[in-house]
Amino acid sequence: MRIQLANSLNGKIYLPGDKSISHRAAILASMATGETRIENFATSADCASTLDCLRKLGVEIKKENSMVLIKGVSKNGFSAAKTELDCGNSGTTMRLLAGVLAGQNFDSILIGDESLQKRPMRRIIEPLTQMGAQIESENFCAPLKIHGKSPLQTISYRLPVASAQVKSSILLAGLNAVGKSKIQNPKSKIQKPTSRNHTELMLRYLEAEIEESFVEVEGGFVQEISVDGNSKLVAKNLNIPSDISSAAFFIVAASCLKNSEIVLKNIGLNPTRTAILDVLQLFGADIEVLNQKEICNETVGDIQVCGRGNFASKASSNIISGDVIANLIDEIPILAVFGTQIENGLEIRGAEELRVKESDRIAATVENLRRMNATVEEFPDGFRVEKSDLKGATVDSFADHRIAMAFAVAALFANGETEIIGSECAGVSFPEFFETLLNVKN
Ligand code: S3P
Question: Whose CA is nearest to atom 13 of ligand 1?
């Protein structure tokens, strides 16, 4: 893909359904009793991997554009797949399905692409093994051979990392355990979930018995979530908000290009996902939320962005670190691009989890920014980028969708033309990205 400097972005933008919520909708609808109609299901390749795996596990699924119909089989009513279950590039598919399969009375093999085979799975293998499943792997990486057990034992587990995928994996396994399982999130400074909480919200919506509380500990709070293995999921139609992580590329682009005015319709505004808006506003971005409402336990609204052009730093410090990192983890590559446009640049710390995403996102971001003439320093847990005059260059997606899209936005600010090698990987989360961008680009 080749992209040139832009003057502004203008127009109304509709984005596909949220990837995280779509995975959960498909999995929980399959675990429910009754039929579920899901509207605005994500168009991402990752969510298609989840649907494929569920079909192989005996779930009847019909899909028409972004509408998906699922006949639930109940939480332990899946049947053994005849082949390996291919999770493609999707960590969420693998980690969440591992939680479901741990509690089934049969064996399954989860495989993935080259990137997924390198990602850490010990974080789910350990708790699921404690619950009674047996999981074979090489060096705690995929392929994973899961010897399921029904019912599982309950667990009381403190998460070593602030990960929604790990938390969700254990919650899903907990639905097939005898009694209440308890999960403690890592400590945080304020009473807020330390990672996205879509699983908890959807479980409650589908009438599972789930409780959440905060315990005060020295220097902060620990969130405890308990789920009862006696819970039954009641099938209910689901409407998926559009993906704020996809919106983020347009929000940054429009904020930085003077004369821009865009409205992103029907975007998910769950407070565990909106840290990107807070950070951009802190630096003076002109962002307004309109028509806010609740749908299926999730907050949704339209986001209006007007271009600011020059950003004089308003924030007291240009360092982003701590609890907020987990709430904007997928937006860090695009924040790095934003950093090249603001006075005093931007520093991200405490984001070492980025090294084990679809690519090493710290290395990939730093490398591409340097190719585009930015001044960047790399740290083990982040980077510092200075305000820079970007120049068109050949950059690499590193087969990572968010890197491809972040650098498509960088190209809009760069003099000359930018070529993105391997840009088609954007389809992992957002197949319509380039088309949507070119439609609103001036
Ligand atoms: C996701 C959680 C996040 C995020 C990923 C999707 C999810 O990872 O980076 O893209 O759907 O649960 P963590 O498990 O590290 O929170």
Answer: 163
Are 146 and 98 contacting, i.e. CB atoms less than 8 angstroms apart? yes
Quick check: 284 and 308 in contact, CB under 8 A?
yes
Measuring from atom 10 of ligand 1, which residue has the nearest CA?
A: 330
User: Whole-angstrom Cα distance, residue 236 to residue 252?
Assistant: 35
Alpha carbon nearest to ligand 1 atom 4, residue: 330
- State which of 165, 245, 362 you would mutate to test the pocket of ligand 1, scoring each by most atoms of that ligand within 8 A of its C-beta: 165
Mean pLDDT of the chain: 97
Other Cβ atoms within 10 Å of 417 Cβ, number: 13
Distance 196 CA to ligand 1 centre (A): 8
Residues with CB under 6 A from ligand 1: 20, 23, 92, 163-165, 168, 195-196, 329-330, 353
Domain architecture of the chain: domains with CATH? 2-16+241-440 (3.65.10.10), 19-239 (3.65.10.10)
Q: What residues are annotated to the active site? A: 330
Torsion of CA 49, 110, 331, 166, to 10 degrees: 130
Reported as a single tens digit per residue, the pLDDT across 16-70 is 999 999 999 999 999 999 999 999 999 999 999 999 999 999 999 999 999 999 9
| Cα separation values, 362 from 82, 289, 380, Å | 39, 30, 8
- Residue 82 burial (CB < 10 Å; 0-12/13-18/19+)? exposed
Question: In angstroms, rounded to a whole number, what is the distance separating the alpha carbons of residues 165 and 146?
Answer: 17
Expressed in angstroms and rounded, the spacing between residue 429 Cα and the centre of ligand 1 is: 12
Q: Whose CA is nearest to atom 16 of ligand 1?
A: 163
pTM over 0.85: yes
For residues 157 and 161, give the distance between their C-alpha atoms in angstroms, rounded to a whole number. Answer: 12
Judge whether 285 and 253 are in contact, CB under 8 Å: no
With the most atoms of ligand 1 within 8 angstroms of its CB, the residue from 27, 196, 332 to mutate is 196
Is a pLDDT exceeding 70 seen at residue 351? yes
> E strands of 269-355, at which residues?
286-295, 298-306, 319-320, 346-348
